[in-house]
Amino acid sequence: MSSDSHHSGISGLGGEVLGHTDVKVSHCYQCGKCSAGCPLSEEMDYPPSVIMRMLQTGNPDLEDKVLRSLSIWVCLTCEMCFSRCPMSIDIPKMMDFLREKSLNEKKSDPKAKEIIAFHKSFLDSIKYTGRLYEIGLFVDYKARTLKILDDLALAPKMMKRGKLNIIPELIKDRSGVASIFRKANKKNKN
Amino acid sequence: MSKIGVFVCHCGENISSTVDCEKVAATVGKYDGVAFSVDYKYMCSDPGQSIIKNAIAEKGLTGVVVAACSPRMHEPTFRKVCAEAGLNPYMCEMANLREHCSWVHEKGEATTEKAIDLVRILVEKVKYNQSLNSIKVPVTKTALVIGGGIAGIQASLDIANTGHKVILIEKDPSIGGHMSQLSETFPTLDCSQCILTPRMVEVAQHPNITLYTYAELESLEGFIGNFKAKIRKKSKSLDEKLCTGCGLCTTKCPTKKIPSEFNEGLGNRTAIYVPFPQAVPNKPVIDRIHCTYYTKGKCKICEKVCPTGAIRFDQEDQIVEVEVGAIVVATGFAVKRPDFFPEYGYGKYADVITGLQFERLASASGPTLGEIRRPSDGKIPEKIVFLACAGSRDPAKGIPYCSKICCMYIAKHAMLYQHKVHSGKSYVFYMDIRAGGKMYEEFVRRAIEDDGVNYIRGRVSKIYEKNGKLIVSGVDTLLNAMPVEIEADMVVLATAGVANEGAEELAQKLHISYDPYKFFAEAHPKLKPVETNTGGIFLAGSCQAPRDIPESVAMASGAAVKVAGLFSQDELTREPIIAVVNRQAAPVYSSCVGCFLCVSACPYQAIEKEEIKNRTGDLIKSIAKVNPGLCQGCGTCVAFCRTKSIDIQGYTHEQMYSEVMALLNEY
To answer: What CATH number was assigned to the domain covering residues B135-234+317-332+509-572?
Structure first.
């Protein structure tokens, strides 16, 4: 590893994280409480505290690994880490930024394909109805992933309990939501 | 006929859970000479003490045996009870039923039998006890403070301000110690010299303080309240009364290339020198090892230029004898040279330096006037690496302890570097960050979060030179021991704080103990941190263990209060447990035959010769005599005496035999 890469602070991905989310990676003192409490850290390739440390080093190789990691996609944004962090570091907010950057740079872990598909389907539902439309979500998701038969047996039971409405509930100001999506997209492109 | 009272304590359940205390009291109560015997749950409690007092008054007891815990614990308590009831306190003895019996044996008949035996031997001893009176010794109300660093300065000022005289001795030409070498101090970053020098001046001007610089302790005799110290004032080759401190001699001295101790070898000084500009006293000394006159026999330029004729080439060391009542040892610590780590290249690479050297680089009075410039070529380092624990916490190197101050000064160094070299990058390799102290953790976080110091957890394996860079090779243990290599321009090693060279010899001169690392030992790690095991000698600062400035100052003030407490008394009371040589009626006078083996055996020089003369002044007999002020009651002389002429009061031959016979005789 080259020496010049080992620095933290304002430069590198840590600097970008600071600029976009106000999260200062240098504040992390590696106690590990986030990783200990994270309900999904066992599914992650790097637990949250290790992601923090990788960003602290400012090493481009490690920054690249962060963007290609499965961790950032496995994160549920449940905010367990944030609520328990002694340094009040908003890790979920940082994860959101890292996911966005990973997608933009086409570095997303292939294993996260379905998770990303689910994210997209979810956002589509919000975009068109302003709310979560369950049937729309799973049709969209199955179309994206081609996993037509998965979990299909659950559908009748959910229907019976009124969990799946055939007709989507629409909100009043759908154009308002659409403009939020337009603006967010535009900002992303800039 | 003796009337002895026996008081058996249950110590809650500590004794009674394995010893049948009632049976002990009942059995012992039947012995000859025992007038009263009772057991009670807590003998040391107020009601327990009343039982003893009442029994002494009502039964007219002539001796008391308390069967309870260790005499180290409660002997003073019960002797005081006896004294209050009108019985001589030395007629009271303690049988240790707790540590010597109940705690170490199972419950059972044999345990109770042993307890009875332990009480019985004390009953037999007390029959031969004699009333003793405590010894009064006068107190010389002058303190000797050894070492003129911040601890010694603080102790001297605090004692002097209570109105007592202080003699402060310092081995270097100036007081100030390590603190005068520091640039800024954690966690406030105030300038070390700025807060220290006013105190140095105060010491020099204080009417109650006599300051001897360039002076060392030659020898010490005596005991608490009555020490006699010999101080060697090393020759400064200077008449201090004539010298005005103009400094002309130091500018004209032709020997200019001597590595400066004050600058940790990063700068030079002359052979006649003042260690630093704010030195107290601000008068030079001649370093005879390097001076051309002393080495080659000619030069004397300083003598020629001195406007007051103050140079004295033929001056000799002077021995000053002083009498003092208490001593504060504040001799500080030394920095372990890290050349015992060949893998770090100290001594091989000019730009691998110690923390104390970095202090001199960062100091405005240092060789670079406060600019961080590396020693090899004077360039400002773009990248600097600090290594924590470069010697400390390394059992393989013989230093298992944490030197305690390094985590903080490294954070300070990295911070100072970032403040002075804005474009620079700093790295700290550490194992743990130990920042216990008021505002300490916050200080370290400031270095990391605000000043962007890069902390890497891991110990550096080696440092080597490549293309003009120092390659620092380690791992990041927080990233699965990922290898890290930094191409540094300068490396600072946080070396271990160790005991001073010669600490052992000084401890032996003072008769104080020291730990395996040769730091001086406190009397109790928690409750007597500034006392030594030798009465009247106290510790302050880093001579006891590595300490930072606030701790050294607090310790010094603590030691000063102990000295002031001692000096608040006009005379001291000592236990009369001392040796005495018997005296008999004429014509024998004493069974002592005057062989004086005891004189050579006594470790405290407490035995002298006494001449017994008749009325006309003719010598009849020479016998040994014990000085009660000096005797510590160790008993060595008793063992040496061939005629059994010496007894320790309270532990006479008669008493010892009666104890043994009590065990041998059947009851």
So the answer is: 3.50.50.60
Determine the average pLDDT of the residues in A39-63: 95
Q: Do A1 and B483 touch (CB under 8 A)?
A: yes
User: With an 8 Å Cβ cutoff, are B452 and A1 in contact?
Assistant: no
CA dist B278 and B191 (Å) reads 14
From the list A8, A9, A53, the residue facing B478 with the nearest CB is: A53
By the 10 Å C-beta count (0-12 exposed, 13-18 middle, 19+ buried), A158 is classed as middle
A117 vs A141: CA distance, rounded Å:
6
Q: What is the pTM of this model?
A: 0.82
Chain A CB contacts of B445 below 8 Å: 29
Cα distance between residue B575 and residue A103, in whole Å = 85
Mean pLDDT (chain A) is: 89
Interface of A with B (CB under 8 A): 1-4, 6-10, 24, 26-27, 29-30, 50, 53-54, 56-57, 62
Q: How confident is the model over B627-645, as pLDDT tens digits?
A: 887 888 999 999 999 999 9
Which residue ranges of chain B lie beneath pLDDT 50? none
Residue A7 has pLDDT above 60, yes or no: no
Q: Is B122 helix (H, G, I), strand (E, B) or coil?
A: helix
pLDDT of amino acid A10: 63
Give how far B430 is from chain A: nearest CA, Å: 13
Look at residue A155 in the predicted model and tell me its pLDDT.
85
**Distance between CA atoms of residues B115 and B130, nearest Å:** 25
Sequence ranges of the domains in chain B: 4-132, 135-234+317-332+509-572, 235-315, 335-347+377-498, 579-648
CA distance B610 to B593: 12
Q: Report d(CA B170, CA B161) in Å as an integer.
A: 20
Report ipTM for this prediction: 0.80
Mutate to test the interface with A, among B423, B486, B489 (most CBs of A within 10 A): B486
Torsion of CA B439, B442, B444, B447, to 10 degrees: -120
Q: Phi/psi of residue A90, each to 5°? A: -85, 80
Hey, what CATH class is B335-347+377-498 in? alpha beta
Q: What's domain B4-132's architecture?
A: 3-Layer(aba) Sandwich (3.40)
Counting Cβ atoms within 10 Å, is residue A187 exposed (0-12), middle (13-18) or buried (19+)? exposed
Asked if the model's pLDDT at residue A4 lies above 50, the reply is no
Q: Nearest to residue B67, comparing CAs of B32, B108, B114, B105?
A: B114
| pLDDT tens, residue by residue, A56-105 | 999 999 999 999 999 999 999 999 999 999 999 999 999 999 999 999 99
Residue of A2, A26, A30 to mutate, testing the B interface (most B Cβ within 10 Å of its Cβ): A26
B579-648: same fold as B335-347+377-498?
Answer: no
Taking an 8 Å cut-off on Cβ atoms, the answer to whether B425 and A54 are in contact is no
**CB A1 to CB B445 under 8 A?**
no
Sequential DSSP letters for B304-342: HH-TT--B-TT---EEEEEEESEEEE---EEEPPGGG-G
CA pair distance B414, B409, nearest whole angstrom: 8
Alpha carbon distances (Å) from B308 to B215, B243, B302? 24, 7, 11
Structural domains of chain A, ranges and CATH numbers in brackets? 3-107 (1.10.1060.10), 111-189 (no CATH)
Which architecture does CATH list for B579-648? 2-Layer Sandwich (3.30)
